[in-house]
Amino acid sequence: MRPVTCSVVLLVAMLAGPSSGIAQSGAPDAKLIEDLVAANRILFDQGVVDGFGHISVRHDKDPNRYLLARNVAPALVKAEDIMEFDLDSNAIDLRDRRIYLERFIHGEIYKLRPDVKAVIHSHSPSVIPFGAARAKLQPIYHMSAFLGTDVPVFEIRDVAGSATDLLVRDKALGQALAKTLGHHPVALMRGHGSVTVGNSIPQVVFRAVYAEMNAKLQADAMRLGSVTFLTPEEAAKAAETIDGQVMRPWELWKRKAMKAE
Ligand code: MN
User: Fold this and answer.
1) Quick one: pLDDT band at residue 25, thresholds 50, 70, 90?
2) Quick one: pLDDT at residue 8?
3) 102 is annotated as an active-site residue
4) What's the CA-to-centroid distance between 9 and ligand 1, angstroms?
5) What percent of the chain has pLDDT over 70?
């Protein structure tokens, strides 16, 4: 390394500070941050999150880190609110910022699922009944085919008894939830909400929006009588086709959500 390059590296490391972690791993791609901010706005605009709920993305330069906003309502998230966490969900550079109590959901899923690049936790309202009632959430149309025909339900009582506040507030609970999720794209959380995973920000946003939509449509259909759902074969085929289309609504939702500012 030439001396000039060397001192530039040193200067960058000094500016980043000893605790920021940026010098060791490299700053995340600016586009990734931009997409994460947009996703926060979209999820609010589409009714998946309200004042609560969060979305994270795996760090593009370091698979052992993820990016998540500080403790703020998703619709208010800006680029400067995005923080880095390790997979034990410790903030790399906490300073005086408050962080989400349930960040362990994200860290523990990234640990167990190397294929997962983005995670959403929400209390999206139409999904809640399917975590609490006997009826199983199942794909009622092609748009939600990714759900598959076996959506798991996380029962926190099985792990921590019946005296919790239902929050996934530590690593053990996060790990138990990640195990329940297994290889699935969505897991319901009884009495609380759901978690959705994907291989990109647009894909996970698509899944969270259409999981909510499916739940609403399924409840409507069930009020009409007996319901015909997609078969596992139909679900697999439709999921493959629709997965190639996730950028179309993403562009639309992004334009609408960012305009609302
Ligand atoms: Mn929650």
Assistant:
1) low
2) 46
3) yes
4) 41
5) 90
